[in-house]
Amino acid sequence: MVTKSNASAARCRRKFLHYFPGGFTDETYIAWERGYKWEAHEGWQATLDRTEHRALLRRGEFAEVAARAVRLESRTNLLFSFEKMALRDAVKAEEGARLFAEGLYELLYGAGKMERRFERWCETVGALPRRQTRVLTWPLVTVFGFIAEPAAHIFLKPMVTRRAAEAYGFDFQYRSRPSWETYAKLLEFAETIRRDLRDLKPRDMIDLQSFIWVQGSDEYPD
User: Label partner for 16 (CA 20 to 30 A): which of 175, 191, 193, 215?
Assistant: First the structure.
């Protein structure tokens, strides 16, 4: 028996393969979606991996951590321009850079369950200095984990993700204020897609986030 959710998932699969017949190894897919995200990850590994991040923290070079992270993100189109500017403003001050650098390390490499680490990261981002534009947005709290550790972290673009979940027949239960509850549902959504597309062999959250993007973005009309 084909359920409504199964039929919806099948439609989403067909839409993805319509644009990228070769699936996650399709040359156009690599060029349009995966390539620049993976390049940002490789840049992170080369300039701000765990060892380098820890060394910079120990030397008190918080501004350098923030500058490298901002520079690596700027090579992508993941954040809106106002979010990029808000982040740059937030880490200009010494205290903002320290909060960001230490909080990001804790998110990526800290002890304990991801739930608590993510909640602390949201608290940290919410405490960053702000001028006019708020920094506690879903794209801002998820972009750096996604670039640094795409095996574990995923990026959340609210409107696109909500549309994709609806198209897929997944009960996303979105809340606008960043919290673990919503992020956990997104991780569940990603794992559902990974399971349903296991024959296409998605490699990591970059592939899963890209699939979500294709479903919900105006760049890919039905």
Answer: 175
Tokens of 91: 């880490």
Q: Which of 17, 165, 137, 163 is nearest to 78 (CA)?
A: 137
CA angle 165, 155, 177 (to 5 degrees): 75
User: Which of 205, 46, 69 lies closest to 128, judged by CA?
Assistant: 69
3-state secondary structure of 108: helix
Domain boundaries, the chain: 4-38+153-216, 47-135
Query: What is the Cα–Cα distance from 62 to 96, expressed in whole angstroms?
Result: 9
For residue 1, pLDDT over 80 is answered with: no
Q: How far apart are CA 32 and CA 125, in angstroms?
A: 30
State both tokens at 80. 């809106």
